[in-house]
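A common beginner's mistake is to predict each chain separately and then try to dock the pieces by hand. The better habit, illustrated here, is to supply every component at once so that their relative placement is modeled jointly.
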Amino acid sequence: MLKAENTLFTIVMLLYFAAMVGYFLFIAVKKDPVSRLAIALQALGLILHTAALILRGIGAGRMPLTNQYEFATSFAWGLSLVSLIFVLRFRFPVLGAFAAPVTFLVIGYAAMQSKEVRELMPALRSNWLGFHVSTAIIAYGSFGVSFVLSIIFLLRDKMRDHGFLDTHIPTAEKLDLISYRSVSLGLLFLTFTIVTGAIWAERAWGSYWSWDPKETWSLVTWIVYAIYLHLRIRRGWRGKSAAVFAVLGFICVMFTYIGVNTWLPGVHSYA
Amino acid sequence: MSKAKKIWRFLSSMQFAIALLVLLAAACALSSLVTQGQSYTWYAARYSERMAAIILALQLDDAYHSWWFLLLNSFLVLNLILCNGKSLPGLLKQYREMGELPAQRPGVEREGITEPEAVFRAMGMPHPRRGVSAEGKEVLYAHRNRVGIWGAWVCHLGILLLILGFSLGQMTKEEYVVYGVPGQLRRVGDTNLVVGIDDFRVELREDDTVEQYTAEITVYDLTREGDPGESAGISVNHPATLHGMRFYQNSTGWAARVQITKAGEPLQDTVLCAGEYLPVEDMPQLVVYFNAFYPDYVLIKGQGPATQSGKLNNPGYLYSVYYQGEILGMNVLTGEDTLTIDDYEVVFSEPQSYTLIQAKRDNYTWLALAGGLVTTLGLILAFYLQPRRLWAIREGERWRLCGLSRKGGVLFAEELDVAIKSTEKGELPHAES
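With all components supplied together, the output reads:
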């Protein structure tokens, strides 16, 4: 089962790479059918990625969400899922060209981690694990997409003379709104993550909040995005300012994910 | 404007809320970089003496309980209360007005509509009401997701409940640790409760990793005469509430039977957990300290005592002996080794696992949890039930369609165009927005 998962994982990496090349090609040759091919490759990659995660879950006899490799590959899955939904929902294939490299980077990071299946320590043997980590994956995926959208927004002015991109990138107002929707989705799921994590921590460690570095940085990330939402209302921070803030938010997300595990170990050290 | 009014306005302003959020995020981030709860010596060794002095002066060693962190949170609570209080009348008015004939400027307008009811249906508002505008024109109007108006308000309320529940919990909670081996009775701190450890099992997998730690306990209330006790099994992730106190299987360690004889006569026979002291009964200034236990003891050159595995292949007991607070010696006993101190002989044997149980009473956990759930509900309302209004004004044979969605913007206009296109036989009427 795990051998099959390994093979599928390699195929998924290749498909995501092919999708990325497809999206780049779409921008280069300016042909819509190429974008449809890239979307199809990404969708196929996502289906096989889902299958790979299921196989790993069956092989390991548990939810595949407990170590660096499993979380990284799931994070890539979340990014791919959310970006594909946004590409299709807003008919915005150029987003794929920016999201695919990020997805590929994250799955590449997963490939560098140990794939060994280890038995779970007692604290991780809980039904809350699935809720807690899967909501984190959607949250991170959504923030990743908002980051990509913000980068597109910030580069938009430089692409203005590029006729093809000009017509294939939504208006500034729409781009800003899509990014806002992505942040909204991320913030909602980050709230789910924090709440489910607190409930689980209460059962496992006897304290629903203990200022563990991962908890603290999840809160910092939550506050940063809350500031983003308030600034949009209060100061009319839309467009460029909001985009810069969304990039800052994603830096917090990445620090919470990788930085905390590397520099600030706590009870989440296994994550 | 009076000074008091100015202060009131500032304290309830979003500007102040943003400043507080920035400060809170910065405070949390900074505090997470400083290891909490250490001494001056520790910080001086880790950083420098000057840095250690700064850390202690700013209370960064216990940042989350420091006066400035509490102050920030108090201001946030005040701001949330004032903000919610201030916005309540306006929100009630808005909520009421959404059900009435629209009078405000639309965010989007489309003219030349022939089948407005169909557009209303396509926009998820199948039963528009009829009315007459101030100009005497026939109007169809409807709204959707009116409850979404309350999103931010409910979210703020949730955060308030969360902070309140957390703060009350911090102020009133009782927390104790008890540990022992099966057969022992242990008092829970200074409470009237006693925990009887009936059994403790460490369930191992084939590869010797731990699957679960399970303790069977009975809790007795000393104030109740003849209390038969309340029993439960507790394991990691499965706490139990007994006599109003919540018990968690927290940790484990090694214990051993310690027998002390004096001139060959039995003097003491007890179970000692690693990390515990045992004063000699008839000479209390002589103390035996059980430092650590190595189930598969090995002495590694340059590193000291260690264990090769978790199996009880070669038990090793690291002990220290103190006399009047001064250390007399420290060593490891293995096998049948005996520690001899003048007339006294100390024997360690029968190693076994002890359970460490956390006992806790926090009467406000439910409030914090409710706060978290209400916050989540508020976000769902704010993000996914965005209030929108649609009204159509008859202009001769055709209708002018007006829409308003505070957060939908251009996406709402697009959605409306799609709805019009699907109902107006593929023709998009003249658009104006």
